[in-house]
Amino acid sequence: MQFVSRLLYVRLSSLTGQAGKPDVRVRLHPLTAFVSHHGLVWVIEILLMASCLGVAAEPAAQSRTPIPDATAQQTAKKAAGELFADRFKQAKTSVEKTTLATDMMDAAGKVQAGSADQYVLLKIARDVAAGTGDAATALQAVERLLEQFDEPAAELIGDTLLTAAREATTSAQHKAVAEAALSIAGKLSDADQYETALRLGEAARSSAQRAKLYPLAKELTARIEEIRRQQLLSEDYRKVLNVLEDKPTDPAANLAAGRHLCFVKGNWDRGVPMLALGSDQALRAAAIKDLRGATSAEEQAAIGDAWWDLAETKQGEVRDTLRLRAGLWYRQAEPKLAEGLAALKVKQRLAELDTIEHEIPAAPIAATEHRVADPRQQLLAGAVLLMTFEAETFAPKEGQMFVADLSGCGNYGIVEGAKRIPAGRAGSALQFEGKASIVLPTLATQLTQGLRQLSISAWVMPADLKGDSMVLDIGFVANASITLFRVDDKFRFSLCETACAFEGVQPRNWYHVVAVWDGIEQRIHVDGVLADKITNDRLVLNATSIGVGHGARLGTQAKSASRAGRYFQGLIDEVAIFKRALSEDEIQVLFQLGRRGEPLLKAPRTRSGR
């Protein structure tokens, strides 16, 4: 039995209390029987659910087939026209046309699955049934199409119901269309198909009035008004996206975009990173906590508390939405929390959420993809070194292995013993063991020309905490160098003799480390948080002051004669160096990219590796 048919049977069984004993109508025609019992509303929901679940809903199923190309469809249409020519001429009444549509669906079940012939037969069956106002039979064809072919569900169902509404003649047909359209109009709106949603809403309201279903007509009127409101909000959102194209870290624009994605569209996965860059400090703090995630039940509960506390300052739907976000984290924490007041509080709040109309999502809510400005576009434009260590950035030449600099500044690296592994923070990373390093022969000279500010960003996983080891070294050691290194359980950022540090490093954990010097302050940020800062306003960094003659290296000291014992052991990924001071917002962008496992840039391999 088909997946959707099984869903219909399960739903019908739950309503009739006869699981395991379906009547003959359900066994032979599950969709038609279900409609006769309960109308089209459940059918719409199940069709949409089946389309969204895809092959994940049925492990044995194959992926849905792409829509056949126009040439194949044209050939199939010609063959179908010849085969059913007499039937088309004879079908004059609604009953005869419905029978024709049913027979064409039967024929579609006898041809090759996924073929253009099957696609065209089902499409024609849908058109014939909808053209006579028979929404139930038309949706049966839609069920078969969505099960086999990669069609957009909401649009296909919406178009089918619009046709059926236009051609409906009986009160029963108008009733069926109106009831089904109430659900699908909202789905179309969620998919940003506002014009189609409004046309369907208007058609359905007219059908409801013709069927004398005045409460339903009133409900459709309210739905139309809500769709128009969402359409206006969407237009405002697109204006904000235009701002973000030019200013990807603009706080006001990020706040507006993040609020729209989270509170209107339910797309927290894309919206939370924007709230973390926004101008609302309370939302920003909660979003940053959310992005950092949790490794324990207590941390999960703390993230839930952050959203809940914020919800207490709001009203209406925003308050409910923030509470539901808190509930997502509470639900993960609740089974693992030790008994105590914290656990009781979480249980109480989850019980309180049961009174909210919407359900707590089981995972970040998926929504229609929007073209959101990529903050990397401007941020990375100022880099003098970008290394992602993806496979396509490596290339051998003259017996050596080169790794490309994606900044466009030509500061390629020469690999000396380091190994690329696929399990990086974002894609691949470099593993440093023994006496491995990356030589950066041109970086020091280019970096020190007119250097008045500096930023270094890297994802680092130390394998151990023994002694001290260099992540990046440029120039001499200690009093004449730019160095990012680990000493015992600390990360230290040193400019000549001045250093700031982060304490509490654990082995085999990823850390996003950013070192910044703005000409006045020297700072180190770890995982998006300022860890330490000192004043360093008298320093002049140039080729002479940092000993450019000794070059630069990743994974050990630049000065080759004294590298023994300072080799880094562990993983390094996503290295970026800038001749300017990164802002806190920009540091958050880099941190969020790594948190999501996205490389800084994607670029094709160059033949030289440079």
Describe the structure.
There is one protein chain. The chain has 610 residues and is an alpha+beta fold. The N terminus and C terminus are likely disordered. The radius of gyration is 31 Å and the shape is elongated. The protein is 48% helix and 16% strand.
Topology record:
Layout: H1 3-16, H2 24-28, H3 30-38, H4 41-53, H5 70-83, H6 85-90, H7 94-108, H8 116-131, H9 135-148, H10 153-167, H11 171-190, H12 194-210, H13 214-246, H14 251-264, H15 268-275, H16 281-292, H17 297-311, H18 316-333, H19 341-353, H20 376-379, E1 383-387, E2 394-397, E3 400-403, E4 413-416, E5 419-421, E6 429-432, E7 437-439, H21 443-447, E8 454-462, E9 468-475, E10 481-487, E11 490-495, E12 498-503, E13 511-517, E14 521-526, E15 529-535, E16 552-554, E17 570-578, H22 584-595
Antiparallel strand pairs: 1-17, 2-3, 3-4, 4-7, 5-6, 6-17, 7-16, 8-13, 8-17, 9-10, 9-16, 10-11, 11-12, 13-14, 14-15
Helix pairs in contact: 1-3, 1-4, 4-9, 4-11, 5-8, 7-8, 7-9, 8-9, 8-10, 9-10, 10-11, 10-12, 11-12, 11-13, 12-13, 13-14, 14-15, 15-16, 16-17, 17-18, 18-19
Question: What's the short version?
Answer:
With 610 residues, the chain is an alpha+beta fold. It is 48% helix and 16% strand. It is elongated and about 95 Å long.
Characteristics:
about 600 residues; alpha+beta; nine-stranded antiparallel sheet; eight-stranded antiparallel sheet; about 15% strand; elongated; disordered N terminus; disordered C terminus
